[in-house]
Amino acid sequence: MSGLKKTIIRAGLETLYFSGAHLFLQPFVSGVGVILTLHHVRPGRPGQFQPNRLLEVSPAFFSKVIRRLRRSGIDLVSLDEVYRRLVEQDFRRRFVCLTFDDGYRDVMQWAYPVLRKHEVPFAMYVPSGFPDRIGELWWLALEKVIAQNGRIGLTMDGEDCHFDCVTVEEKRDVYEHIYWWLRRRETEEELRDAVRDLCARYGVDMAKICDDLCMTWDELAVLARDPLCTIGAHTVNHVILRKVSEKEARTELAMGRSVIEAALGVRPDHLAYPVGDPTSAGPREYRLAQEAGYKTATTTNPGVLFASDRDRLMALPRISINGEYQQMRYLSVLLSGAATALWNRFRRDEAA
Fold first, then answer.
1. What domains can you pick out in the chain, each with its CATH number?
2. Rounded CA gap, 352 and 349, in Å?
3. How many CB atoms lie within 10 A of CB 258?
């Protein structure tokens, strides 16, 4: 995320909070509930070049969030309960559901004890390839390549390109440029081949990244035995589903679920689309998820839940707890629904 975009978002959150506009808008835009998205919960890392810092929050901030939610009077519920309330239109009380994407080990180390202490239900969306140790966390591999080198080169659109990345600012610019070039690739294989080539050139071991960061099946089994935890599906290989054929997308949706069931003895009823924005999942993916028999499927499209989301259970919005904005006042604004209402220009997606 560019520095300018972060500044604009922060200014918007500050304005909504200190003007009190979020409280004025809340009765009109708060909806019936919220699904929150998190990835990492861990202590801050050293170093200024951290382009993926938006995906992590500190244990101290996470604890504050949980305590705040517990004191708020909002129901903290599981994905099954979200599904029930939407289907039965039971909205006597507003609710929040916590979800974690990707199955990172730090969630078990830092977040799980807090969740267990406060008896908070949560969901863990697991790409089965990560505990199988075949996962390619390409966005983190790209970060590592740039972090470890002062100049890198790769072939982009048929041309050999070279980038100086000595200073922190240069590294941020290069990451942003290459990351979004990768995201624009037509196919998932093209994206991954480019990152594999970078890793081979600059000695970055993608398998080690997965092994270091992601839970094993044994670790996931501990969570799966806890009634507080819902294990959800997140495909096999964390692919951007819109970049693969319909046949491959069907396989990813079915196989990820089947592997989890075989490994943990629980069959996931809930899905999160990898990446999850409109460039990653759309009407075709919503249809495929429904045909696969999932109860719900979540996107990363920003928004709170409304009663009408009963008609788009395969395209539920979420609100990200972003590591760049670890302030409790920002959480208040996000939970009010005001920030996402403005972001969406007070429009809601069509039913999917």
1. 3-133+229-343 (3.20.20.370), 138-207 (no CATH)
2. 8
3. 15
